[in-house]
Design a protein that fits this description.
single chain; 316 residues; alpha/beta; Rossmann fold; 2 domains; seven-stranded mixed sheet; five-stranded parallel sheet; 14 strands; 25% strand; kinase activity; nucleotide biosynthesis; nucleotide-binding
């Protein structure tokens, strides 16, 4: 069967990831240009013919979130106007994912707004990783593929030197995800319970599971302020020993997170993936970066050839 040509394009958010994916697939990178005008407007052009081609555009919407999101919308419009056969959006870091419901009256459900925008602008398929709330998939009326970085991160800890470690969920809400890590690494599971003191402050009330004499691997979907590192006190008070590791898919890493990481001698490594471009100033010695490009390349290849993705999706 004759297939339309497969093309990989990238916005400005993370061209390195797109290039790595294209190299694995042995597909040349699509040529396009993004220009930011002096008045801050974004202007994009597709610099080659894409008529009847199957396009995959890589654009995680990390900071500056709105700039990268708007750039993605303009790319979708340009591909549609250029008569692309299909446009699939690889958005490893999905923006506004934590604004997924109304916690009080008169709030916007921003994640739903993003979903509507992607559909309205002509996306045929959306692929994201380790979203904060898996129910966001239901905001879409188009195919959504939610692969997880859990297998990539878990493989790092499948080593003899981690046999005395336990997987730690930082709260009850992450327990299902932590359970997947425990299954894939063969390590025990511990869950921390937190109480919210205010809109911005929480504290750990107790630790469920036996961590005495064990070292912790604390998992989470993303790390922004790094406040989860402050929960180490509760783990060591409960009997944890040795050096701690953190395993996080999306390394947002605000300045406070880098400060906590550098200044806490109990932390051995923060292991993350490259779903987000990590600038040089954040690439501190304790940061270990694993690539998700091979996984995303495999997903693109299967979608393009009409094959199942079931074994690549870790549903929680």
């Amino acid at each position: 069967m004759t297939r339309n040509t497969l093309r990989i394009f990238s916005g400005n958010a993370h061209p390195e990831l797109a290039k790595e994916i294209a190299e694995i697939l042995k597909v040349p990178m699509g040529r396009s240009t993004t220009t930011i005008f002096p008045d801050s407007e974004t202007y994009i052009t597709i610099d080659e013919v894409v008529r009847d081609q199957d396009i995959f555009i890589v654009q995680p919407c990390s900071a500056p979130v709105n700039e990268h999101l708007m750039e993605l919308m303009l790319y979708l419009d340009a591909f549609r106007r250029a008569s692309a056969n299909s446009v699939s959006v690889l958005i490893p870091y999905f923006p506004y994912a934590r604004q997924d419901r109304m916690a009080k009256g008169r709030e916007a459900i921003s994640a739903r707004v993003v979903a509507n925008m992607l559909e309205t602008m002509g996306a045929d398929r959306v692929i994201y990783m380790d979203i904060h709330n898996t129910a966001i998939q239901g905001f879409f009326n188009i195919p959504v593929d939610p692969p997880s970085a859990i297998p990539v991160l878990s493989s790092y800890f499948k080593k003899e030197r981690f046999k005395n470690y336990v997987i730690v969920s930082p709260d009850v809400g992450r327990a299902d995800v932590a359970g997947k890590y425990a299954e894939q690494t063969g390590l025990p599971l511990v869950v921390m319970h937190k109480r919210r003191d205010s809109a911005t402050e929480t504290h750990t009330t107790h630790v469920v599971g036996d961590i005495r004499g064990k070292s912790p691997i604390i998992i989470d979907d993303l790390m922004a302020s790094g406040s989860v590192m402050l929960q180490l006190d509760a783990l060591y008070d409960a009997g944890a020993v040795g050096k701690a590791y953190f395993a996080v898919t999306h390394p947002v890493l605000l300045p406070t997170a880098i400060e906590y990481l550098n200044n806490d001698d109990r932390i051995e490594k923060l292991v993350v993936t490259n779903t987000i471009h990590i600038p040089l100033e954040k690439r501190v010695p304790k940061l270990e970066i694993l690539s998700i490009a091979p996984l995303l390349a495999k997903i693109i290849d299967r979608i393009y050839h009409g094959k199942s993705l079931s074994d690549l999706l870790v549903l929680t």
